[in-house]
């Protein structure tokens, strides 16, 4: 049934990925995975691991095991995931917010535009990073990998966040740094917006149908009008 004008909100809602989108933490994840994989006997080049960041840990392990020519073993997968969590925790002191993250979220709050965070990470990985936002997390909609049956590239994370914001998926903008974010956004029926701060190229993000691609949160904020956000009632 076609929607009427009254069904369309004045402004979209935003759902943000976390690692590589709001927080500069992608390469810490990459190195933690490389150390973990080395320890379980899987030598893999850093670039191959980077191409899988943004997936759930289980899917990432399936992919790297396939590329390494190894069969699947639940015990090996569980061990590598546990080691990754340990080594990633060691890197937390080096993790920073990306340029413009604080300003972007503050601007959305000032404009009374609702937003949420959806991350494939498990709570023990995500919570310390979320603390960098300097907010009362009880007031922020956060969906992590433990709250859904399947993480990215499945759409469950984004659909759960959109549901919490109580809007139609067509009225949501999904902001992410990876092709897996863009795939999950498409499957959720929302519009994907890419950022380059996770290491994927503009061409890769556009090939997975990112509507716009920005350098980082600051660049997105500087061009937020391109996403249909009205910065004054007259606009």
Please describe the topology of this protein.
Blueprint: E1 13-16, E2 23-24, H1 26-39, H2 46-50, H3 57-67, H4 74-90, E3 96-97, H5 101-110, E4 115-118, H6 123-130, E5 141-143, H7 156-165, E6 172-176, H8 179-188, E7 191-195, H9 202-207, E8 213-214, H10 217-222
Helix pairs in contact: 1-4
Properties at a glance:
DNA polymerase, domain 1, alpha/beta, two-stranded antiparallel sheet, Rossmann fold
Assign an overall shape: globular
Helical amount = 40-55%
Uncertain stretches of 5 or more adjacent residues: none
Return Rg in Å: 18 Å
> What would the CATH topology of the largest domain be?
Rossmann fold
Number of structural domains: 2
**N-to-C CA distance:** 30 Å
Strand content: 5-15%
Strand order of the largest sheet: 5-4-1-6-7-8
CATH superfamily heading of the largest domain: HAD superfamily/HAD-like
**CATH structural architecture of the largest domain:** 3-Layer(aba) Sandwich
Mean pLDDT rating: 88
The run of helices and strands is EEHHHHEHEHEHEHEHEH
